[in-house]
Amino acid sequence: MALRQEGPWSKRTKEEAGKVAERKEITLSVNGSPFALEVKVSRVLVDVLRDDLGLTGTKEGCGTGDCGACTVLIDGRPVNSCLVLAVEADGKEVTTVEGLSKDGKLDPLQEAFVEEGAVQCGFCSPGMLMTSKGLLAENPSPTEQEVRKAIAGNLCRCTGYVRIVNAILKAR
Q: Within this chain, do residues 83 and 27 fall inside the same structural domain, yes or no?
């Protein structure tokens, strides 16, 4: 007795199965530059940013939305790019950590992170910066409690958060 029914799909190679996967053309703006890409509908945004566009500042930590390392801004709002399908970013403006500096000059938030020693190993820094950028755009003068609440979804194993909070408060 067969455990599964045989059919043409059961004899497909991995290569053939990949060709069958649905693809979609998307257009999006990343850090102010327009892009048109054809992506599998199942691909997440963090993979497209890193693998297709070479923007490796965005990190993938957990892949489940728990660590915040992959945070980017979509239309100005922080999102975990490991949970967003690339097709969901179609027609949107995506900002990554690479988009913060302009003409070789650090964003004031980046400067504050450096000055306050909020960058240790650097793995969480891109996500922290993008979450903080979103917070400051929405609330230019957050309290310490509001800062702590905003970054609660971003994990850091190095700093203990005090320097990160101080940097965000300094940048406001």
A: yes
Distance of CA 79 to the CA centre of its chain: 7
Which SS3 state, helix, strand or coil, does residue 83 take?
coil
> pLDDT tens-digit profile of 18-49?
555 699 999 999 999 999 999 999 999 999 99
What residues contact 43, with CB distance under 8 A and at least 6 apart? 85, 86
CA distance 142 to 49: 30
Question: What's the CA gap between 71 and 36, in Å, rounded?
Answer: 22
Say which amino acid occupies 141.
S
Beta-bridge mates of residue 85 = 44
Kindly report whether the global pTM for this prediction surpasses the value 0.85.
Answer: yes
Total residues found in the chain within this entry: 172
50/120 same-domain check: no
As a whole number of angstroms, the distance between CA 126 and CA 96 comes to 8
> To 5 degrees, how large is the angle CA 167–CA 101–CA 152?
40
Task: Convert the pLDDT of each residue in 61-85 to its tens digit.
Answer: 999 999 999 999 999 999 999 999 9
CA 14 to each of CA 10, 38, 43, 124: distance values in angstroms, whole numbers, following the listed order: 11, 20, 17, 35
Looking at 82, 99, 116, the residue that finishes a domain is: 99
Q: What is the dihedral of CA 162, 163, 164, 166, to 10 degrees?
A: 90
